[in-house]
From TrEMBL, chain B:
Any GO molecular function: ATP hydrolysis activity
Function: Probably part of a binding-protein-dependent transport system y4tOPQRS for a peptide. Probably responsible for energy coupling to the transport system.
Superkingdom assignment: Bacteria
Family: Belongs to the ABC transporter superfamily.
Start and end residues of each ABC transporter domain: 7-252
CC per GO annotation: plasma membrane
Organism expressing this protein natively: Ensifer adhaerens
Full protein name: Peptide ABC transporter ATP-binding protein
Keyword ATP-binding in record: yes
Keyword line: Amino-acid transport, ATP-binding, Nucleotide-binding, Transport
Gene3D superfamilies in UniProt: P-loop containing nucleotide triphosphate hydrolases
């Protein structure tokens, strides 16, 4: 129990509602195949469009599939795809960002100009271009989003790496005659990963939204795999006759996005030096806002 | 001083690009110093005069734009890569701020162990033994080993930092105000520890400080730096008793006295004006803009260093007069103020 105390103390500082929402999301997503009461793809047209009842707790969709099971499996889809997108994007971003932060000079200039190019093109446009070339599909979507996402994490990693590199403890290592490998892998990389992971939490909400957006447009996760964005588009024709079908996946998505944003920002504000966090969060909010704008245009 | 110097710095120059386009900040300009084995040499001067930059350039944290650093007669500027790292390891640096010079993620044991690994101590038993020995030398209990450095006090951290630099068996230690970030009560402890270690291990030490009393107590010789140049150097007893450069005279006189009776009669105000910009230093003698003795000749050329007595020299055209007490920057200052 003693080992848990510091973790519990840290958890207490976070916004409780967001923590519960994300905890629920992660738990449901992880154990979805065992938790879903029914086969999410089993169709039964005789039971299509039914409201909540004992057999189907949250009702059924237009093909008679169990909405509750589909929502749970969709949490899994969302969790896995968001995790992969952020995993790939963070890896690319951290590698390039730390190399730029370590070397400075022309390497830094070159890599950061590439990042600038990446940041200047709206991420949805990059994703759409990649999907347009390769064709829609699950892994295409993950790669497309990762490609659109890494410049942001590259920028953050570089900022963190530069601040670590200028610390006297790195200078002390250089005076001791440590090899560049030791400084990079032993001190710079672990330090950067620790800080950048915090931003990953804050980014997860936006990434979830992006996955749902692409699926909504039919460019991401393909049927019959349940996904919130795709459930929304399936239910759209019944918006007036049966708003429940639209509301449920919409609410699930909204809760996940808001939960990740709130949780991520509170972690970031607690863990990272203030001025850096403010700038990064402001930049990230702009990013989120641009997604909304692009979506309404699309 | 018949021994060969362990560290010889020849005409070292460090400049940084200025914010003004095409201009340079001459932080260290044509500085030559020597350190003999086992001695403590003080380096004093106002903040911003280039003391720290000089120290950082010697250990390679800043790039010298010209000049040489010779360690045991080996020219470090001729080496590169692993050979440079191996040679330069004998030059160690103790940072001013013990809070940022240690990695917070490491425990004390890990920090020292890493230094030992870098220095090439391969076996685990050997490193374990040396870590214990080093902690003992700097007066820390071996229980501290498993504590994270962030859990320690400033004094303890500075002890760990000293232990870490000693782990690689340095011949020269450059201490950049190693105690000025510490509490007064801790300061004396760490300073005494440092002096004892320096004596026991026979490490030569360049002691950078603006605490003049501390330097007088610790150092056998002193270099006085002003605006990137050494203006005077000599044995500390003689330099403190008979400072022979107007800047040294004024710097020493501006240090407050502990005894209030003396302090009351102290001459002042002494140092006037600001340090000129190192981007655009005055022509000739750099101190002339603030010097009460300045004459027209001072602006023409940098005054050469005048030897005054063995090991004591000052770069001022009046150095001989000042040394003999025929002139005094302080009296002159008072006379012109009156």
């Amino acid at each position: 129990m003693n080992m848990l105390n510091p973790i519990l103390a840290r958890l207490k500082k976070m916004p409780r509602a967001a923590l519960i929402t994300i905890g629920l999301f992660v738990a449901l997503g992880t154990f979805a195949p065992w938790l879903a009461p029914q086969d999410p793809s089993a169709q039964n047209l005789l039971e299509a469009g039914l409201g909540p009842m004992a057999a189907h707790w949250l009702g059924t969709d237009h093909l008679g599939r169990d909405t509750f099971s589909r929502l749970i499996i969709a949490a899994n889809t969302s969790l896995v795809s968001v995790g992969s997108v952020l995993g790939i994007a963070m890896t690319i971003g951290i590698v390039l960002g730390t190399i730029a932060g370590y070397h400075r000079g022309w390497v830094d200039d070159l890599l950061m100009r590439i990042v600038d190019v990446g940041l200047s093109v709206p991420s949805l446009i990059i994703s759409l271009a990649v999907i347009g070339i390769v064709g829609p599909g699950y892994w295409t979507m993950v790669l497309a989003l990762a490609l659109a996402w890494w410049p942001m994490s590259g920028r953050i990693s570089r900022a963190v790496a530069v601040s670590i590199m200028s610390k006297p403890h790195i200078e002390a290592l250089r005076v001791l005659g440590a090899s560049p490998w030791r400084i990079y892998f032993g001190h710079l990389l672990p330090g950067t990963i620790g800080s950048v992971m915090v931003y990953a939490t804050a980014d997860a909400g936006t990434a979830a939204l992006a996955v749902a957006t692409l699926s909504f447009l039919g460019l991401g996760i393909q049927p019959p795999t349940p996904e919130w964005g795709q459930m929304l588009v399936d239910a759209l024709p019944y918006l007036e006759s049966d708003p429940r079908q639209v509301l449920l996946p919409g609410l699930a998505l909204t809760a996940a996005v808001i939960g990740f944003n709130t949780l991520g920002e509170s972690i970031a504000l607690n863990r990272i030096p203030k001025p850096l966090t403010r700038r990064m969060l402001a930049a990230r909010r702009l990013e989120v806002a641009s997604w909304d704008k692009e979506n309404s245009d699309a | 001083m018949t021994q060969a110097p362990v560290l010889k710095v020849e005409n070292l120059q460090t400049r940084f690009k200025s914010v003004q386009r095409g201009k340079f900040v001459h932080a260290v300009d044509d500085v030559s110093i020597e350190l003999y084995p086992g001695e403590i040499v003080g380096l004093v001067g106002e903040s911003g005069c280039g003391k720290s930059t000089l120290g950082r350039t010697i250990v390679g944290l800043e790039k010298a734009s010209s000049g040489r650093v010779l360690l045991d007669g080996v020219d470090l500027s001729a080496l590169s890569g692993a050979a440079l790292r191996d040679s330069r390891r004998a030059l160690q640096y103790v940072f001013q701020d013990p809070y940022s010079s240690l990695n917070d993620r490491q425990t004390v044991g890990e920090a020292i162990d890493e230094a030992l690994v870098i220095a090439g101590t391969r076996t685990l038993e050997e490193r374990d033994r040396r870590t214990k020995e080093l902690l003992d030398q700097v007066g820390l209990a071996s229980a501290v080993r498993d504590r994270h450095t962030r859990e320690l006090s400033g004094g303890q951290r500075q002890r760990v930092a000293i232990a870490r630099s000693l782990a690689v068996n340095p011949r020269v230690l450059i201490c950049d105000e190693p105690v000025s970030a510490l509490d007064l009560s801790i300061r004396a402890q760490v300073m005494n520890l440092f002096l004892r270690l320096q004596k026991d291990l026979g490490v030569a030490c360049l002691f950078i400080a603006h605490d003049l009393a501390l330097v007088r107590q610790a150092a056998s010789r002193v270099y006085v730096m002003y605006l990137g140049r050494i203006v005077e150097h000599g044995p500390s007893q003689e330099l403190y008793d008979r400072p022979s450069h107007p800047y040294s005279q004024m710097l020493l006189a501006s240090a407050p006295e502990v005894d209030p009776r003396i302090e009351k009669h102290r001459r002042g105000p002494l140092m006037i004006g600001e340090v000129p910009s190192p981007t655009n230093p005055p022509s000739g003698c750099r101190f002339r803009t603030r010097c009460p003795l300045a004459v027209d000749d001072c602006a023409k050329a940098m005054p050469p260093s005048h030897g005054l007595s063995p090991g004591h020299s000052a770069a001022c055209i009046f150095a001989a007069d000042l040394h003999r007490g025929k002139r005094s920057a302080l009296l002159h200052q008072e006379a012109s103020a009156a």
